[in-house]
Amino acid sequence: xxxxxxxLKLGVAAAGLALGLGAASSGAMAQQQFVSIGTGAVTGVYxxxxxxxxxxxxxxRSEHGIRCSVESTGGSVFNVNAIRGGDLEFGVVQSDVxxxxxxxxxxxxxGGAHEDLRAVFSLHPEPATIAVRADSDIHEFDDLLGNRVNxxxxxxxxxALMDVVMEHKGWSASDFSLASELxxxxxxxxxxxxxxxxxxxxxxxxxxxxxxxxxxxDVRIINANDDELMxxxxxxxxxxxxxxxxxxxxxxxxxxxxxxxxxxxxxxANVDEDAVYTLVASVFDNLDSFKALHPALEVxxxxxxxxxxxxxxxxxxxxxxxxxxxxxx
Length: 329
Ligand code: GLU
What we know:
It is built from 13 helices and 10 strands. It is of the alpha/beta class. Strands 1, 2, 3, 4, 5, 6, 7, 8, 9 and 10 form a 10-stranded mixed sheet that branches. Helix 6 links the parallel strand 5 and strand 6 (178-180). Glutamic acid binds next to helix 6.
């Protein structure tokens, strides 16, 4: 009896506590919301760009209550999958990966179309960057055959791109003497240690990773513009020809002629409209500061960011901002 009474009392107290806590936490949630951006390797461009977006957004946190944080990840494909799984709200992804994810093509064929993927804006160009040891016999793209090549970690955009290129050229991993799957953080060291002859990286320029590897050992960046590759550029939406300016990196004095994709910023359709609007406003209201936060962003143009390179539907929060500012009809 006694124990029943006391347990009853305890039960009531616990219910009261739970109610109190519930009220307190929902109050706190209204004030503080968390969003995470999936990026790439810390030495890539996605990671500092994600950091720049969060920095601008967090500056006005007292007004909107959203705390933005950045995650280093395996890259584009990883980000799309994490957004789909509800582990991330936002991500930076290659334009070709955005297209494939939304349409269930390429590497997303098995998992099916990611219909809840939403475009937010587009970012910087990302040329396919083929870095080779200066002492290697690799002078054009097809010379990669028979050599030790890092084709990229599964989950990265460069791997997605390399898979398409290899299929187009009728190559398989066994056509290289080694096809490694190192992440961008490891590939520079592997090249300088003579464990690989070349790596393929789709990345904005200048990038910290490319600066590091080219200043640590003797590296050349080769052209990737043969007829087969140019036929692929014609065929695939979101591939375009690209140039990496000569003199940008030690060891590569001539312009490099290659092809590339664009980086884009995406969200889950489940992220609320106001949060996306706030993020977009943080970037576009401060575009000059944003562009100054990383040299690969220098080329950005507001109108192009709002209208080009995207294939998933625009998130309503982004759409509202762009419409209010006359950037879309
Ligand atoms: N384009 C690469 C990817 O999609 C990432 C490049 C970067 O980190 O800047 O995985």
